[in-house]
Design brief:
Layout: H1 12-22, H2 26-39, H3 44-56, H4 60-73, H5 77-89, H6 93-106, H7 111-123, H8 127-140, H9 145-157, H10 161-174, H11 179-191, H12 195-208, H13 213-226, H14 229-242, H15 247-260, H16 263-276, H17 281-293, H18 297-308, H19 314-330, H20 334-341, E1 369-372, H21 377-383, H22 387-391, E2 396-399, H23 402-409, H24 412-415, E3 419-421, E4 435-438, H25 442-445, E5 469-470, E6 473-474, E7 492-497, H26 507-510, E8 526-530, H27 552-560, E9 564-568, H28 571-579, E10 583-587, E11 600-602, E12 608-610, E13 616-620, H29 632-647
Parallel strand pairs: 1-2, 1-4, 2-3, 7-8, 7-9, 9-10, 10-13
Antiparallel strand pairs: 5-6, 11-12
Helix pairs in contact: 1-2, 1-3, 2-3, 3-4, 3-5, 4-5, 5-6, 5-7, 6-7, 7-8, 8-9, 9-10, 10-11, 11-12, 12-13, 13-14, 13-15, 14-15, 15-16, 16-17, 17-18, 17-19, 18-19, 19-20, 21-28, 23-27
Length: 648
């Protein structure tokens, strides 16, 4: 854009030319300036205005020459600003900085001089100095929204996202109708991991630019992050109709359809996005994910391997390798699967590992190793079994979430003194740890090719004790998921958990509406105990005892007195499995790899036993789809199985 400094000394013709340039009429502006220069070739302002025209047309080389001509005639500060911009556009950062320095010295009260200096310093990698220059520009124009936005963007590029958001909020207060301010603030919220909060700001941008596919795609993504899937779908479908073949819109629409359970529609959208941009590794990984959910694992595997071995970014290769790992684990190809599963480490936030080096499974000469919980409570419970083989290589310090601490303290490797459980506030280094490893990484670093077999590690009052084993093999179970000869007292006590964490983006597919459980009301002789936190039992279509307050140990003690646990895929399934309680898992179509066929083994009677939890029985959705429909068959099967138990 042309600079306006010194306008009081410019002739009307130069002012007219700059006015034309400001509205995009560069051709008429240039013609007017050429006429003026033919009349007076010593007009410095006209040569400078010609430099502005050249810059606007993308001809930085000519702009440098023209600005130099103006400076030769009269070395004004704003001429040096234009020269600095033009040099910077040619990637001549140091000469640009020298020109900006002259501008700052000549016109220290002109914020544009400090802004171009900031751009030059940033190009030279001097980010802190660039930030100081922008703060100077802001002090000169404290009520200018643009100055706040420039500083916010600079802070964000330095990774100071929290501070950038504070500055961006000031910009919005100064100019609440500025669309660019809303867009930048939304992008900063996304970068800060607060995408849910970005929706109203992206909404303003999408409303202002309904034909801009990226703007609408961003709004849809923010709605998706909020869990407003139906609204996100409407917004994205409308955008897809307005702007055909927009990969970002089709991708976000496909992810929304996945979250809602419309896997066929998701496959269509994600496939279309990839077809429009076949070299985009991120789109390829997304498409592979829906293929895996549809059970088309061979196609998904081929796609993930293609991305992993291609020219994709490091993050996209990691995403592809991690997803490949889940496919391999679902198929029971554990040795390679564990290694690929490790790619998740580069996708997760940094863990609290005190800067300890990663343990590779080798002996440590008696020095302890920190084993830490990495993700959810269910994952932690599942992988705690690997503490035992780890003890064969090194002494173990164990760090678990507070909600699990009292339960893990009851596990025999802790209560027996073989493992030290870190207390809140205690550091691993203070007790001699020399390395660390995530619990989920133990199968890979120990080189294990099969799931480590289940055994009961914790005994609670009322628990049934260890499940029967024969020579280390899984015992036969009856079709109800109980030991074949186990008597069941009446009334039968059944624990019930029907919903997972709503923050999980695919929770809509794994959780049930309470109304779905209506068939259980028809089963006589059953007393239901809720194992569900933060959900009212009054929503159930039958009476149930609420879950008392407490941690997972108190839930485990309650669970120990139950006859069967009926649950969706959440921590309750793992807790029941760890305790060896009969657990009936209501499993979504395309469910987690640990419930797939690769994690099971045939047992006498034609049944299959889960390798992680022998007491687990699956009741899986036979088809995918939206809403409650896909749950009808598995819930009815649970009701039928309960009837059989009551009659035993």
């Amino acid at each position: 854009m042309p600079h306006q400094n010194g306008m009081a000394t410019q002739t009307p013709s130069v002012k007219q030319a700059l006015a034309l340039l400001s509205v995009g009429d560069a051709e008429r502006a240039a013609a007017m300036l050429r006429t003026l220069l033919r009349e007076d070739a010593s007009d410095a302002e006209a040569w400078h205005a010609m430099a502005c025209v050249a810059r606007a047309g993308g001809d930085a080389q000519s702009a440098v020459a023209l600005a130099g001509r103006a400076i030769g005639l009269r070395p004004e500060g704003h001429f040096h600003i234009t020269l600095a911009h033009a040099l910077l556009e040619q990637e001549h950062a140091e000469p640009a900085r020298a020109a900006a320095h002259v501008a700052v010295m000549a016109t220290p009260r002109d914020p544009r001089a400090h802004e171009v200096m900031a751009a030059c310093l940033e190009a030279l990698g001097r980010m802190q100095d660039a930030e100081l220059a922008l703060r100077t520009a802001l002090r000169l124009r404290p009520l200018d929204c643009e100055k706040h936005l420039n500083l916010a963007a600079c802070l964000a590029r330095q990774g100071k996202v929290t501070e950038a958001l504070r500055v961006s909020e000031k910009a919005l207060r100064l100019a609440p109708d500025t669309i660019f301010a809303h867009n930048q603030h939304a992008l900063l919220l996304e970068r800060a991991g607060r995408m849910r909060e970005a929706a109203p700001f992206f909404a303003v941008v999408a409303e202002a630019f309904p034909q801009d596919a990226a703007a609408v795609a961003n709004y849809g993504a923010a709605l998706f992050a909020q869990g407003a899937f139906e609204k996100a779908r409407v917004v994205l479908q409308d955008s897809a109709r307005r702007v055909l073949d927009a990969p970002e819109t089709r991708t976000n629409l496909g992810l929304v359809q996945m979250a809602l359970g419309a896997l066929d529609a998701a496959e269509q959208e994600l496939g279309a996005a990839l077809s429009a941009r076949p070299q985009d590794a991120r789109l390829a990984v997304n498409y592979g994910t829906v293929l895996a959910d549809l059970g088309r694992r061979q196609e998904a595997e081929a796609l993930f391997r293609q991305v992993e071995s291609g020219q994709a970014s490091e993050q996209d290769r990691a995403r592809a390798r991690f997803n490949l790992g889940t496919v391999l684990l679902a198929e029971g190809r554990f040795e390679e699967g564990w290694q690929a599963f490790e790619a998740r480490q580069s996708l997760l936030p940094a863990s609290q590992t005190e800067g300890l080096p990663h343990w590779d499974g080798t002996a440590t000469g008696g020095s302890p190793v920190l084993l830490y919980a990495e993700q959810g409570l269910g994952d932690t419970l599942q992988f705690l079994r690997y503490v035992e083989p780890a003890l064969d290589h090194a002494p173990v310090l164990l760090a678990v979430p507070e909600a699990l601490r009292s339960l893990v303290a009851r596990m025999e490797f802790v209560s027996g003194g073989w493992v030290m459980l870190l207390q809140k506030g205690q550091t691993a280094r203070s007790v001699g740890a020399v390395a660390c490893c995530s619990l989920l990484s133990l199968p890979a670093c120990l080189g294990l090719s099969e799931p480590y077999p289940w055994r009961q590690m914790v005994c609670l009052p009322g628990a049934g004790g260890r499940l029967p084993e024969e020579n280390g093999q899984l015992s036969a179970y009856g079709p109800e998921g109980l030991p074949a000869a186990s008597p069941v007292s009446k009334p039968l006590r059944a624990g019930l958990c029907w919903a997972g964490n709503p923050g999980y983006r695919f929770d809509r597919r794994r959780s049930l509406a309470p109304a779905c459980l209506a068939p259980l009301a028809d089963v006589p002789g059953v007393v239901f105990q809720s194992l569900q936190r933060d959900h009212a039992v009054a929503d159930l279509p039958f009476p149930a005892t609420p879950l008392p307050e407490g941690d997972l140990l108190s839930t485990a003690c309650l669970m120990a007195g139950l006859d069967v646990v009926i649950t969706v895929d959440t921590v309750i399934a793992h807790l029941a499995g760890v305790l060896g309680k009969p657990v009936w898992l209501l499993n979504r179509f395309g469910g987690d790899w640990r419930w797939a066929e690769g994690s099971s083994r045939p047992v006498p009677g034609g049944e299959r036993a889960n390798l992680w939890y022998p007491s687990l029985r699956l009741f899986s959705q036979p088809v995918y789809g939206e809403g409650n429909g896909p749950w009808a068959e598995p819930v009815q099967a649970v009701a039928d199985a309960l009837c059989k138990l009551v009659k035993m």
